Amino acid sequence: MKITKDSRISFDPVSIIVDGNRWFPMMGEMHFSRYPSQYWEEELAKMKSGGIDIVSLYVIWIHHEEVQGEFDFTGDRDLHSFLEAVKKSGLYCILRIGPWAHGEARNGGFPDWLLQDAKENGYETRTDAPRYLSHVRAFYEKTYEQAEGFFIKDGGPVIGIQIENEYGHCGGKNGQEGENHMKTLLAMAKEIGFDAPIYTATGWGGAVTGGMLPVMGGYCEAPWDQRLTEIEPSGNYIFTRERNDHNIGSDHGLGAGITFDMDKFPYLTAELGGGLQVTHHRRPVATGEDTEAMTMTKLGSGANLLGYYMYHGGTNPYGKLTTLQETRETGYPNDLPEYSYDFNAPLREFGQMEDTYRRVRLLASFVHDFGDDLTDMAYTEQPGNPSKPEDNKSLRSAVRYKTATDFEGKEIPRGYLFVNNYQRRYEMEAHKDAELRAYSEDGSKVLAFFGKRDIKDGDFFFYPFNMEIGEKALLTIDATPVCKLENTDGQGHSTYVFYTDGDREVNADVRGDLDGNSILTITKNEAIHSVKVSIGGRDHLIVSDGDAVTDADGHVQLYYEVSDKEKEIRPVFRCFPQMSAPSGFVQKKAAGKMADFITGDALAIYEGTDHLKNECKGDLEKVSETEYRIKTPGKLDGADEIFLHVEYEADSAKLLKDGTVLTDSFYTGQEWEIGLKRFFDRFGAADELLLNAQLKPLYEGDKIYLQDWPKMVDGKACQIVNIHFIVQYRINIS
Questions:
Q1: DSSP 8-state code for residue 47
Q2: How do residues 202-239 score in pLDDT, each as one tens digit?
Q3: Hey, which residues does 642 pair with through a beta bridge?
Q4: Which CATH superfamily, name and number, covers 619-729?
Q5: Does the domain at residues 9-372 carry the CATH identifier 3.40.50.11810?
Q6: Quick check: helix, strand or coil at residue 366?
């Protein structure tokens, strides 16, 4: 969807509407003040290539006015420059201006001086208290100075403004007093100049919205939960009309705890957990499958915007007076790392593209090509679908469909059957020879039948019925759609890409004439590693162990990693349709012939002529029981990044340079991964970088939740087991 300054953006109870057309966007959160500014453009390119349309971001008050009256919008805190980078990238923006943000920031983003001022002058923050509003106005005005000229009406990227966060759910007032305060903040923002077609407010858990467009959320676990045990199955893996968090709504009736009329607003999400930020007492690890299965469940439940918090991790900036993370010392329920805000996000603290990134990208690929049509396909409850996540025996399913007209003018149902047999950290019962049918609203009519298949624990998928293939054919297939590649034969015909799971034979029912269009089936693993790109004005599907990213100038770059176990490799990628071999590559296999039905074997293979090398050597020296010296290589010629991997066993760790903390980590059982190029740039390291690692011991009796505990020696764990390096290269292929 292309939005211009003249576009009309609105919404109805179904979806966002742009120039009269329904729009299903993907959104991802990135905090500019938590990432080095010199890398903003390349990270935004990764986001866009990962399928993100809208960047959402907090302007975290304490990051900009830690000392009263001393506003800082410079360097990594430069909102103006970040919005310029967003505009250049071709992305859009939802600006979340608070004033309270949370975001695991100190005081939820409020400066210490504001809380002290409220205490000394006897007023309550997050209310209509005049003195509080005067401080908010000053912050809003300074924020507006940065954002001025970047609204969509000016040709900029900002299409929406979020006011406050979780207001009435996490602090603030409820009822009419809360509604009035939200309206006060909205009126102030508009008066100052925040002029956007959409104003949003978080709507879960009893939050009040002031009449603004409510956005919802859902996380696969709860690291803020004060329990130290495995918690109950998450309701975010259940198909339901319920938009609220399952802990609030599902036991008390549909929509219980929601303050707005769900029939008047579309189902939009802003905070699907793209990962989880661990707390000191609770450290769950969100996997890519956790996020993918939860996202697909929300898609099947009727969501018409998929928004991730966080989509891009980061590092807290240095404070002038204090560290800037959430702590129990400041009255909040959790202790967070002082610096690392990694979040196990799709793009992590140092820009790493992880499995979650690829799995979200796969869903986004479908949404981009078919999501706009999906928006007015209503969620339809299915017979036997369970309402409780504790039910691990019933098969979970949903349908989204609408009545359409086929190429002969007959009315037909067109839509998708969604099936989920995945529940994070709980085993689901297998279903052998399950008959897959899509039913109408009352369950009396079969809309589509996909035959039988075995559904194992952990399986999740969705199948289309009566999907339009060109203008003359309809397809029902037991394979999951990936994307549509246009003009693949150079004659204007398209290829529709699907993935299959397992070795079973695909059942496809084509009604009508494919008319030169084709259907490509690949495996789920190939789909996860696939990216749709534009090369030479034609769509291509790139499949590679590397990640294809299109930069702001339209060049396709392949990010490739070499571990120190491999030492050197030749980069390889596959492509459909075939292309001219890029510089530094030779074509090893030509693409197969175009046919009605084609398989992944038809992808052309391209192999690099030169090896990518990993010659990194480091040194680890134990100084004391809790301290180590680490020597890393300096900049590696031709490499884009070097990742230091630290395998350690302890409660937590800090990485320092000359006594200054660079980043930190709470132990989860994962390797601690640190991107070094920002430190090469910062310290001018050409030959080597000398660092210190400090550990805090983990004891058997420590009151924390870990999914997997390390081996204890004499009742504690406190050691770095090993370090190693992964080298990342960036290779142009167009």
A1: H
A2: 999 899 999 999 999 999 999 999 999 999 999 999 99
A3: 727
A4: Galactose-binding domain-like (2.60.120.260)
A5: no
A6: helix
